């Protein structure tokens, strides 16, 4: 005798997911984003690399040593402290070795200004030309020639800054030029990144096969 299965009174029917309609178009596959291309050199850089002067300089041991130097990224405060500490150390060494030569101090100030402008991080580029003259004034104290107490040291500092302002302006100019070049390169790089992102978004939005519309049955 055939027995019919009975369902308990408290049980609920299971809900199953609706099956996709037959004939519905499949979603187009999302194209993968291609790897980001390597940054190409600027036209000015390529032109400079073709010059005989660049080829001669690139073969020099000093140029290769500079290329192998570390490339830190200092904050605005860190760049100012770096320049002031290095210049104060140079002033102490010059006072011990040469009796306090401000001309040699000014010559050493130029590469320190260049390194400060090169090592400051991109977000604090404006702080490098401001920190460099402060470092010059802070480091020149041991060789300023001031005597006596605070008043004599202060007058000696003012005299040294007035007589050797050319080195101060020269180092500040070097830092300003380097910071300006870095800022222009940074703006150009950001513009190229935006253009590349827009191109990738345009390629992703374009499907490989347009979806087919379903024609209702008559």
From TrEMBL:
The keyword Transmembrane applies. The keyword Protease does not apply. Residues 1-45, 195-218 are annotated as: Disordered. It holds the Pfam family DUF6542. Coiled coil: none annotated. Keywords: Membrane, Transmembrane, Transmembrane helix. Residues 73-186 form the DUF6542 domain. The chain crosses the membrane at residues 74-96, 102-120, 125-145, 157-181. This is Membrane protein. The lineage of its organism: Bacteria, Bacillati, Actinomycetota, Actinomycetes, Kitasatosporales.
């Amino acid at each position: 005798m055939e027995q019919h299965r009975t369902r308990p009174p408290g049980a609920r029917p299971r809900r199953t997911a609706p099956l996709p309609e037959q004939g519905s178009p499949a979603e187009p596959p999302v194209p993968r984003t291609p790897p980001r291309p390597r940054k190409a050199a600027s036209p000015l850089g390529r032109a400079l690399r073709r010059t005989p002067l660049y080829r001669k300089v690139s073969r020099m041991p000093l140029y290769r040593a500079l290329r192998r130097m570390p490339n830190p990224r200092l904050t605005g405060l860190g760049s100012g402290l770096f320049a002031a500490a290095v210049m104060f150390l140079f002033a102490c060494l010059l006072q011990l070795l040469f009796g306090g030569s401000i001309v040699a101090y000014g010559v050493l100030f130029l590469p320190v200004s260049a390194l400060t402008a090169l090592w400051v991080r991109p977000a604090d580029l404006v702080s490098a030309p401001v920190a460099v003259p402060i470092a010059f004034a802070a480091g020149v104290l041991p060789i300023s020639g001031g005597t006596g107490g605070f008043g004599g040291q202060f007058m000696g500092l003012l005299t040294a800054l007035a007589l050797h302002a050319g080195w101060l302006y020269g180092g500040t100019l070097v830092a300003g030029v380097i910071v300006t070049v870095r800022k222009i390169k940074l703006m150009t790089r950001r513009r190229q990144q935006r253009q590349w992102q827009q191109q990738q978004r345009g390629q992703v939005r374009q499907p490989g096969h347009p979806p087919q519309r379903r024609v209702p049955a008559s």
